[in-house]
User: What shape does this take?
Amino acid sequence: MRPTTQLPRRLPRRVEIVEVGPRDGLQNEPRAISTAEKLELVRLALEAGVGAVQVTAFVHPRWVPQMADAEEVGRGLGELARRPGDEVARDRPAVRCSALVPNLKGYQRAVAAGVKAVDYVLSASDAFNRRNLNQSIAESLRELEQVARAAADDRVALRADISAAFHSPFEGAIAPARLAGVARQAASLGVGEVGLSDTDGFADPLAVGAGVEAVLAGTSLQVEQLALHLHDTCGRAIANVMAGLEVGVRRFDASAGGLGGCPYSPGASGNLATEDLVLLLHDLGIETGIDLDRMLDAAAYALQFSARPYQGHALRVKRPELFRQA
Amino acid sequence: MRPTTQLPRRLPRRVEIVEVGPRDGLQNEPRAISTAEKLELVRLALEAGVGAVQVTAFVHPRWVPQMADAEEVGRGLGELARRPGDEVARDRPAVRCSALVPNLKGYQRAVAAGVKAVDYVLSASDAFNRRNLNQSIAESLRELEQVARAAADDRVALRADISAAFHSPFEGAIAPARLAGVARQAASLGVGEVGLSDTDGFADPLAVGAGVEAVLAGTSLQVEQLALHLHDTCGRAIANVMAGLEVGVRRFDASAGGLGGCPYSPGASGNLATEDLVLLLHDLGIETGIDLDRMLDAAAYALQFSARPYQGHALRVKRPELFRQA
Assistant: This one.
């Protein structure tokens, strides 16, 4: 008998999952998905017990035609809340639903549509920031300052999403200190939550752990204020979740059915599938508040929108009949 | 600034990958794959720098028709070694190639065919052992004793592969102490190496870490004598590799193109793809001795044998042209 070499891991007891399928999952799908279909996906996710949903993006419809109905989705949330007899109504979905905004104009559109929580996107990679947002990181931070001021006045919850936080398709590995620098500036503007995105899915678990550690060590942000947004391009999404859990992260984005992907990354597969994340967390004994079976219903619904074969895993395992060839 | 909460991880500097595509990858494929095709896959893996290949299984052809040419594959390795001008020849593939044997008869067939390394398979799950091998674990251990004695006489390297080491499709989670008990009995018979298999791919990283720790604490086996064999059914293969690396494991099975899968598990996807594992390890700064680009050639070759779409990741990322629809 020898002593064990590993310290017992202390993982969080509860994790919150942010369902991003209606936005990140659908934005690059070729066929037009109706507002009603998007709202049905939101409803299914909320009914499964998902605590937060990113429902749309207030971006220019020329760049992302799929999100051209952002106002209708925002207004639809209000109607969802008013549906009689619907258990979702009691949870006031408008409060638990956020929208991505790339700039102040997008923010103003979101607020006008009744959205109460916004995700402002910038990047730790200057090249990625320029390609995705057509401005430098410094310019994005100046605009974030305006958005943060408006959000404080409007009592709108604000999260800053740092894309390419660990790896950039244009620059390769992002130094943890550089990520921490961007996060520090965002935090200094009063942002309440920061999302760290492995946008192209090339980060490895050591990079994710080091990046989160650098943000915790180099900013005023507490681990409760962080979220991780992971893609499964290289089959590492679950490994990167583990790396995040080990440093205390307890909020993760995921997409029903694994829909989505980074348009700048060759062969990039989708987001971490929500159902895969729920299955993992439950196996680890971590609470999510989500009913896996109802989440599988949401994933099966989401899958019909995808032009690609299923990229997740749990649906294939738990609902093999969906994948049997005729 | 706060101190970091995570200990620096000490991962192994070098990892050996055992390519199991020619055996585990192909055994359930519906179309008959020729001996020449199997040997070409072995050759491509060896040329990529893979240190060890599991080339076939000496099982009854009624149960696994795809392995009916085990003798021809065994003899073909000798011819591979004699091919003039082939750089593989210098590495004497017969020495680096192993074959699975389910019993003493299979062992005798393997040795008669010139195989110098065998993998004897049993399980930590009694139900799995009965279903897969038609006998109890105790009976498998008694037969292992005979195989171990013969292997010592014949100077044949012997590895014991413990299937369903962490999770069984019939019994669920396997207690680490139970796994350690089977490993301890195998080690007491003089087995030089033990493989721990997440056969159905349902283990989570905590289970893998706990299982390896229990084996190290409860047997005479050193970590150098262990190998992990992981499936990606739930998208956790890479996370489980990380769990293994963290407890010092430095030998992993993988299958070119991610071929293979557990026939008893609904919707089970394939083995961990060798190319995904190589990409991960190189990103982590761990040596493998494998040229990723040539490994991708082997994976692309292997993929033609698969009746399923590609289940790995690195080939899609690095060779997107293979996946473009016409």
User: Anything to note?
Assistant: The first strand of chain A starts at residue 16 and ends at 19.
